[in-house]
Amino acid sequence: MIGGALSWLRARGRGGNAEAAQEVRRxxxxxxxxxxxxxxxxxxxxxxxxxxxxxxxxxxxxxxxYLAQRQQQQIQTVVPRVAVVGQxxxxxxxxxxxxxxxxxxxxxxxxxxxxxxxxxxxxxxxNFETIVARNGQAHVGILYDAxxxxxxxxxxxxxxxxxRYSQEIVAARLAARHINPRDLLPVVLDQHNVATQRQxxxxxxxxxxxxxxxxxxxxGGMSVAVDLAAGEKERGTLESLLITPPxxxxxxxxxxxxxxxxxxxGVIVVLLAMMxxxxxxxxxxxxxxxxxxxxxxxxxxxxxxxVALLFSALVSAVQLAISIYARSPREAQQYITPLxxxxxxxxxxxxxxxxxxxxxxxxxxxxxxxxxxxxxxLLGTVNWGHLFLAAVSCAFYAALALEVAIALMSRExxxxxx
Amino acid sequence: xxxxxxxxxxxxxxxxxxxxxxxxxxxFRCYAGEVFGLLGPNGAGKxxxxxxxxxxxxxxxxxxxxxxxxxxxxxxxxxxLIGVLPENAGIYGRLTARDVIRYAGRLYGVPxxxxxxxxxxxxxxxxLTAHLDRLTDTFSKGMKQKVNIARALIHNxxxxxxxxxxxxxxxxxxxxxxxxxxxxxxEGRCVIMSTHVMEEAERLCDRVAIVAGGxxxxxxxxxxxxxxxxxxxxxxxxxxxxxxxx
Lengths: 418, 246
Fold this sequence. Notes:
- The complex is a heterodimer of chains A (418) and B (246).
- Chain A has 418 residues and is mainly α.
- Helix content of chain A is 70%, strand content 4%.
- In chain A, helix 3 runs antiparallel to helix 8 (197-235), helix 8 runs antiparallel to helix 12 (329-349) and helix 11 runs antiparallel to helix 12.
- Chain A is elongated.
- The model of chain A has no long low-confidence stretch (mean pLDDT 86).
- The model of chain B has no long low-confidence stretch (mean pLDDT 91).
- At the A-B interface, helix 2 and helix 9 of A face helix 2, helix 3 and helix 5 of B.
C-alpha cells in the first residue's frame, strides 16, 4: 500500500529522485505511525472496530436464524384452532385423527378470526356430505388473515387437511369404478439438487457477507477519519502539523493509511467473527439436517480481502476528504452518515438486480463493483475480467478521492474554516 | 545590525480573505539574537502576519523571506528553518509528551540519536523530564504549552515564532515560558512573538511593532518609542489603537 502510494506520488512528479522519495516515505510512515498509535489508544475506536463486530456478528447471524427457525418449528408443531361452519362429520373426524387442526365452533367466526380467538375459518356448504356421496363437487371456503403469519400457517394446514380428505374420496370413487389410482399418474417426478455444499454455503455467505463487509469498511474507519482531520482542526493541532516540512500529500497519505488500517481491521474482525459463528455456532444452535460447510478456499479468501482492501481504500479516502472539509467533528459526522447509507444500501439491492452482474458497466460503478465481485467470489462463479475491471475502477476512484482530499488540505479557506 | 544578520524580512505583506482586508502592507525586519514583538489588539492582523511568515497562508501581495528564502516559493526550506508555537495550539492528548516531541522530530527529519539527546536536553530545560511518559491529556495548560515549545524547538531552528505564548497560562507557567524566551535570545535565535500584554513586551522584546487595522502604526526599540512620544508603552499602544478605530 505504501509502495503504491509512493509510486503514485512519483507519478505526480513530486518525488523526482530517490532521496526525495525516501523523505516522502519517511514522512508518510511518521504520520501513519503516530495516527495509528492514537487509534490504538482510543477506546471508542477500538470498541467500534473490534469489540462491536465481534459481539454483533454472532448475534446477527445466529440470533436471527435461531429466531426464524424457532418460529418455523412452533408453526409446525402447534395445532391451530380453526372455526368450522357447517356440517362435515367425516372431515372433522379426519381433522382430529391427523391433528392438523383443532376444529371449534364459533358464534361469529369472522369476529373470532379478527380477535385471534381462532386462526382460520372453514365454511362447509349445506348438504356437503350428500354432494360428496353423489359424486358431486363441493366448494369449501377458507377465511384467514394474510398479515398474520400464524393465520397463514393455519390456512396451509386446512388446505392440507382438505387435500387429504379429497384424496380419500377420490380413492373411494376410483375403487368403486375398478380403476387403479396409478393409472391417473403417468408421470412421477424425481428431483435432485446438484448444487454442491460449497455452492450452497456460498449462497448463504453471498446473501450476508458483502453487506456486512461493506458496513464495517465504512463504520471501522469512520471515527478515525473524523478524528484525524476535523478532530485535529478542533483541537488546534492541524496548524502545527502544516508548519512542519512534510508536503500536504505526505500528510494526507499518512492519515489515509491509518483510516484504511482501521477500516480493514473492522472488515477482518467481521470476517473472522462470521466464519467462527457459522462454523461452530450454526450447527450448535440450529437443528439443521444439512451440514454447513462454510470454509472458503484460501485463494478465494485472499482475493476477497484484496477486493475489500480496494473498497476500503475508496471509502476511507472519501471519509477523509469529507473530514478535511468539515469545520468540526460534528459536521464531519453529519456529512459521513448519509455516505454510510449510500455505500451500504446497494448491498441489499444487489440480490434483486442479479441480471446487472452480467454487464461490464456494473463492475465499473463504484460500490456496486465491489458487491458483485464479492458475490462472484462467494458463489464460485468468478469472471477474472469482471474482477480486473472492479479492481482497476476501485483503485481509480480511491485515487480520485485522495486527490480531492489533498486539494482540500492545500486550501487555506478549508483549513481555516470556522 | 547589519544586513547579513537579517533572518526575517517582510515587505509590504498583504492578505485579503474575500472582502476582508486583514493585513495591509506590513513591512519589517528581524535579526539574529533579538526578540521582536508584534503588539496589537485582537483582530489587528498579528496572527495572519505570522501565518504568512510561517507558510500556512499565502500572501495576497508582498514578499517575505526567512534567512533569505521566499516563504511562498521555498516553503519547504522555510519550514525547516522555523519553529512555531501557534495561537491556542492544541496537543495530541492520547500521546505522551515524549511521543509528541519525537513525532515532531521525525517530521523534521532529525536523526534518531540526535533526536534522543535533544529531547533529553530540551525536556530538562523545560523541567519536563519527570513527565515525559505521561499522556498529555493529563497535563495542565502550562505543561501542555511547554510540550508544544519543546515540539517547536526539536529541530533547533534559528527562527522562532510565538503567537500569544503566555495566553491563558497561570503566573508560574507564564514566567517559565518567558524565561525560556530569554534563553532563545541568548542562544542567538531570532524570536518573533505576538502579544497584547504590555509588561511582557517591555520585559522581553528588543524591538516592537504596534499593529492595528492590518497596518504597522509604530515600530522601533522600546526606548526610542518612549523617548519619541514621552509616553509609556501602554499609553503609546492605546493611543495608536484609538486613532486607528477613529
